[in-house]
Amino acid sequence: MSLPPGFLDELRTRLSLSDVVGRKVMWDRKKSNQGKGDMWAPCPFHHEKTASFHVDDKQGYYYCFGCHAKGDAISFVRETENVGFMEAVEILAGEAGMQMPARDPRAQEKADATTRLTEVMEQAVQWFRLQLKTAAGAEARDYLSRRGLDEAAQARWGLGFAPPGWEGLREALAAKGVSVEDMLACRLLRESDKGRAPYDAFRNRIMFPIRDIRGRCIAFGGRAMDPADNAKYLNSSEGPLFDKGRTLFNHQQARAAVGKGQPLIVAEGYMDVIALAEAGFEAAVAPLGTAVTEDQLALLWRMAPEPVVALDGDKAGLRAAMRLIDMALPQIGPGRSLRFALLPEGKDPDDLLRAEGPPAMQAVLDRALPLVDLLWQRETEDRALDSPERRAALDASLRAAAALIQDADVRRHYEEEFKRRKWELFNPRRAAGSAPATQGGTPQRAWRPRGAPAPALPTPSTRGSLLAAAGAEIEEQLREAVILATLLTHPSLADEFAHAIEELDWRGQGHAGLAMALLSHADAPDPRRALEQEIGATALEKIFAPAHVRIAPCIRNPGDIELARMCLAQDFAILSADRGAVREIAEAMHQIDGLADEGLTWRLGQASEARHRAANNHETDKADYDIAPNGARLDRSERASLDALLDQIENQKPRGRRH
């Protein structure tokens, strides 16, 4: 429909923008100057405590300095009422006392039909309300009373009752002049497949009116009173008024409550929403018999940037959460996501509120998890990660999940978060280390996966052994520095060696933090520059400072990536093997205090045999090293420690004991 020239200009002239906006906001009296038409308020489009939403009455425009929403009276009504352009114009024209120009005949006919059908629906609401008060509705009243809904609450929600008969509503509406065709269009009746007259769609059910964003009843939900009924809950069929995938139960009231600062809660059903609202959580909505659709998700985000999805804490609730995550991932963006409040297993919001009251529900909402937490839980829970292949499968699934995110910035942050969590998962000892890693002189938080035990403190014998000598530790830290310098010189190799980087027990000062930062920025256009911005150029310079690092072949030949790849593989292998030997011997020396049993004797014996086999099979230039059972190389000092340990065990065993 086209509007005549000058119609919108006259409409804007007749209306004060501050009057239109004033229905949805509370003006900041100290900041506003009503005489000059300069008004300020907290923004109705996003949560805030300060008044950053500005209305200029003279210009007829609003602007939010927080979320950058802007527009005129028509756009304000469109956004807050969730209506189209022409509907917004109609609403404003009615307020301004202006007659809308003649519509296209077909459009006018459709609008008239919608108005007529919504009037029929309101008559049905009133009839169901009356039936709830009759003797036939006694059982339904008792049920609602047991659920904590008194008469006042029943009236607020327009609850009613459809009696068991097949034609009660049809006859009542027909007596008021409503045609059968309109009742069928409203989906209040159903056609008979036996050639009989249409019959009532709802029978022996508690009735919940479903209203659109403008408060008009467009459908019903019915809760069966007969436990043997095939469908416990039944919604109206879709028709001219009702599209269940684009409708939310309690949409209008929830939007108003969100505007007052309440969090938007997404529950599963009518009773949950009603229980939440009656308990003070008024910004509660529910989808209608199906999982949340993309259209409903868009409606949710128009009300709040981060709705809280309240789910039953059982497997079905978690499955629903996972389906919603998959649908939401392509659409999330800055200031547009979801949080998930998981209720105690076997309880929905209504159960929890009746059992423990609003404080218990508030506690659940306060613990709501961000979307990334549930996504990580899904990808890692009940998943064995004890082999390179299985860890690679985890990498693939995490990459696939992140790839669904369309917003580049959010996708990058998810990838960095996954890398951080993988490092924590595969490095429990370092994550829980006794001495915190430092970065630029600042202690960094030590991470430990949930449920992982804290590492045992070193025993006096371990601390005093040759394995903990300062010289060995310095050599290891220099090797770590060479690895980091090589990765900084060849950042393209970071992804290839990601597992080794994550699994290595970094011991040099600041090495762990630098390694994880390097992984996070491996895909950046200029990783070196990105690292300098994050941790400072000084920290990078310290890595290259030692002469041992500068003379390393892979550093002296920065253009030879194959040489760098070989050096990294060798250095990671040496560190992993050497530290494996250290752990074996340190553990054995710790156990000697309690006179180790045959199992320990056998294990050390196997280590000794492996050592001798290695000595006999290796070339003379490798004679200084032996091989431990875990594949680690043993130098002369470590070999001496093993021999001494075996002798000590043998000498202290009681005589006659078999071994």
UniProtKB/TrEMBL annotation:
GO biological process: DNA replication, synthesis of primer
UniProt keyword annotations, A-Z: DNA replication, DNA-binding, DNA-directed RNA polymerase, Magnesium, Metal-binding, Nucleotidyltransferase, Primosome, Transcription, Transferase, Zinc, Zinc-finger
UniProt cofactor note: Binds 1 zinc ion per monomer.
Positions annotated as zinc finger (CHC2-type): 43-67
Residue span(s) of domain Toprim: 262-344
Family membership noted in the UniProt record: Belongs to the DnaG primase family.
NCBIfam families, A to Z: dnaG
Subunit relationships: Monomer. Interacts with DnaB.
Protein name per the record: DNA primase
Organism, scientific name: Vannielia litorea
